[in-house]
Amino acid sequence: xxxxQETADSVxxxxxxxxxxxxxSGALLVLWTIALLRSRRVIFDxxxxxxxxxxxELSLAEQQGRLAIIRELQDGAVLTIARLITRxxxxxxxxxxxxxxxxRAATALVDDGRVAxxxxxxxxxxxxxxxxxxxxxxxxxxxxxxxxxxxxxGLVVSFIESGDRFALKAGAELAIFRILQSALSNAxxxxxxxxxxxxxxxxxxxxxxxxxxxxxxRAAARRDGKxxxxxVARTPYTIEDDLxxxxxxxxxxxxxxxxxxxxxxxxxxxxxxxxxLGFSVSAVFPSLRFHNGVHGVDLSR
Length: 301
Hints:
Radius of gyration: 33 Å
Order of helices and strands: HHHEHEEHHHHEE
């Protein structure tokens, strides 16, 4: 009888233990999910701050360079004005006793005044350029820094470049950098961590084609641990989806800014959904080598 009672107590305890363990497991899973989301948010915020830091460093380097030039020109202008005042005083004292010497001094005053005026105009030009540009024009290193930051944020970035690269004007290089930056940021924002972004630069004799393709739609299935077959099954699309993607007009502040940057340098901008896969951004610049940001002109002729 006692053995039967012990068996019954053991069964009752087991029946209580299983639900308790289930509740505990569920609570631990919820806590783990919350911690993971917080961790991803911290990583995203950290990398967003890193992007801001890079932009601020570029801007600071540019402004420091401009200030150094302004200081040099200002020092030269101050010396010229001091010499101009000294000669003016000498001309005043010799005007009555030696008019010919006063005339030569006045001529020198004019020359010194022109030099000082030219230096001050250069200072104003540099200041105005700084207000217009506001940042060091991104170059190859800036692009590599951008790729590094986006990879740290969770985007899988691959880069292919073909053709012979040529030097770009400052404004054109900045426009391309901003288009690339916006396209990669959108891929991470809408596709999420683990999204693959394929960037390609194709250089022609006078132009450049920029292409950014991502698999943001497919990445969601990949994050759920599905294999390749299940990923395709979870991201179906039809002919109607293809037709819609070809005819739809993508709108939004980011898309508009990228389109305007491309058009400024004679570029043709396109952006659209790739059904079942992700998103694609392209900017084609037919005559970027000679484009001055206002109209395409071969400036070498």
